[in-house]
């Protein structure tokens, strides 16, 4: 197995060796997202076991070195750090209820990670991701606004597109629609800009005559919000899809793709929003999260987005952020 020149190697570190962190590391490994992977967790036995397990499969993956440990220095020199560390979400518990504990973890980790990888982009997956991302930016300072962002509603958007493709009988690649706002209960689908094969989604007729009427839209939106709760109830955690989506985001950053993704960023005026991290379609590349696109919104969507922002600000203020 050849090893890339160290000066050109792309290193991704994953913080947290739980079900989400290991799923992200595994997805990055099998997709060839990076040349080097590092896994950090304070549980030394767990992180060692996960690193061994991943290394034993490297014969069957694109070339990649895998290391790990219980010292933050294992992440040094990272191009991208994916942060999953935090308290686990339990059945019936909302993401926002996790806020107090996970915000403190986010703030501490941000300072530690940037100390050993000062040029890294930090991608937060820890829930509640919007509040954790806001806390991390506060800890790092405003100059890091673009280089620290959250996975936001990238996975929620994938769920929406999957459900629409299934209901209407089309390939998921032909569905273009976004979930925006909070990664959680107040998120909203942007029906007014959704398209299928270039046709407005609300006007599209599927191969079997299916249409995206009001009832179906309501059911799909409800299913997107409830998906995580259903998965957590059944198996204890959502991990596989967030693993794949996080690996995808990592590739977008490392390859400087300038792809539009609904990631969670600190808002500074688009749609009148500020002082809050939430998801809107955003240009993502090597420097992190860039320009937020001001996509047209219906009055109902604009109202829903403002409400989602208020929900998040209330949590931030309750935590002194």
From TrEMBL:
Lineage top rank: taxon: Bacteria
Binding-site list for NAD(+): 16-21, 41, 46, 86-87, 102, 108, 125-127, 151
Residues annotated as the enzyme's active site: 183
Enzyme Commission number(s) of this protein: 1.1.1.27
Main localisation: cytoplasm
Reactions catalysed: (S)-lactate + NAD(+) = pyruvate + NADH + H(+)
Activity regulation details: Allosterically activated by fructose 1,6-bisphosphate (FBP).
Keyword check for Cytoplasm: yes
The protein's annotated pathway: Fermentation; pyruvate fermentation to lactate; (S)-lactate from pyruvate: step 1/1
Keywords on record: Allosteric enzyme, Cytoplasm, NAD, Oxidoreductase, Phosphoprotein
All residue ranges annotated as the Lactate/malate dehydrogenase C-terminal domain in the record: 153-315
Keyword Oxidoreductase in annotation: yes
Ligand binding (beta-D-fructose 1,6-bisphosphate): 161, 176
GO molecular function, one term: L-lactate dehydrogenase (NAD+) activity
Stored SUPFAM superfamilies: LDH C-terminal domain-like (SSF56327), NAD(P)-binding Rossmann-fold domains (SSF51735)
Pfam families: Ldh_1_C, Ldh_1_N
Domain Lactate/malate dehydrogenase N-terminal residues, every copy: 11-150
Positions where Phosphotyrosine occurs in the chain: 229
GO BP terms, alphabetized: glycolytic process; lactate metabolic process
Chain positions recorded as substrate binding sites: 89, 95, 127-130, 156-159, 238
Location in the cell: Cytoplasm
Function: Catalyzes the conversion of lactate to pyruvate.
HAMAP family linked: Lactate_dehydrog
Subunit structure, interactors included: Homotetramer.
Entry's family note: Belongs to the LDH/MDH superfamily. LDH family.
Protein name from the UniProt record: L-lactate dehydrogenase
Biological source species: Rhodococcus erythropolis
